[in-house]
Task: structure prediction
Amino acid sequence: MARNWWKILSALLAIFSLIAGLKTPLAPGIHRVSPDRLSYGVNQVEILGYNTRFSEAESSLQLWLQNGSTSICPYERVVVDDQRMRVTFSIPEKVEDSFFHLYINNDLDGTMMLESAFLHKNLTVVEYVEKDAQSCLQPLSTQEAGGFHFPNQSILNESIRNLFFHVPSWFAMMFLMSVSLFYSIKHLRSGGLREDVFAENAARVGLVFAAAGLLTGSVWARFTWGAWWVSDPRLNGAALGVLVYLAYFVLKSSVNDSQKSGRLGAVYNIFAYTMMMLFIMVLPRLTDSLHPGVGGNPAFSQYDLDDNMRLVFYPAVLAWIGIGVWIFQLRNRMAMIELKRNYA
Amino acid sequence: MPDFGKHFYVRAVYVVALLLLPAALLAQGESGAEWMYEAGKINVVFVVVAVMLLALLLYLLMMDRRLRKLENEEKLSK
Result:
């Protein structure tokens, strides 16, 4: 029992991240507006909220459009239910920006914003618009929604929770590849068969997590970016990293002499690890892409990972690393029995 | 040296094919995938969790088979 505490801990953390990751509600947000184009004159639009309480907090409800430096307030507003309102705006002929951002504010939901909620239709975009009676002086204040929740980002929506499964999978893969590198270097120093087997097993379990990472990423990409695979530096880098490791197994199994295959494999592993690090960690940061954590910004900025998500994300990382190491050790124990039998 | 790498790619291809099966089924036309966009795309999360667990379970299954082989050899040698 004393030796197994970390296995139990990993399992508990995994259960925690699963439950907390799925049960925590998303912050209130603006789901959709229709129609999403505004033209000169009177425009009636329907606004759909997500996890919002429009009617419950109607007394404190504020709503406005932001266009450049102009705020446009509705002149009529009908709250249908907690998730729906019908709003009428009067849009001037000249505007400062082709996009209108939508802000909704109330005491229960806090301030919600839908960026570029509306596009203009046949309006004249000018540098500066004289403020007249139509523009209002909101926003008065912005406020936070109460309670423990995850951020509600457009397009991502609930799928933001995938972060607790997709990203830790890659972390576990990196950890196991580092373990593999450690044993490869140890093998080069000692020449022991044991270390070679350990290095191979770690890479193998690492590849399982890489496969899970690629596949979960693919599903996630399909329903946020619209394709199973997008040609993106981070995605292609990850795929190349996996291929580099597949070649490690091809190389190892193609040499029959165990000493020779061990040595070759260990040297190649150092190369593979470096390449993977370059492909996954370095190269994607040099260019722009859809994937967070690319183009210079690490994925840990406040926009990608807020404090509430960290509370679930880091336990998930520990959990999957722990489970990976657990499987790795089981694999090793099996391999040691095989090794003993074959040399008995 | 026991043949640790034997048939590894064949198995890897099987595993990937099995894991891609749900995805391939989902890809049957745009109309079939609409449920993934419902309720704030929460179903995407369920599929992702399922894929994660499936990947680990398949690997456990592979280990199980290998252990079974080892046990059988043990029996034979006795």
Notes: Chain A touches chain B through 53 residues (CB under 8 Å). DSSP finds six helices and eleven strands in chain A.
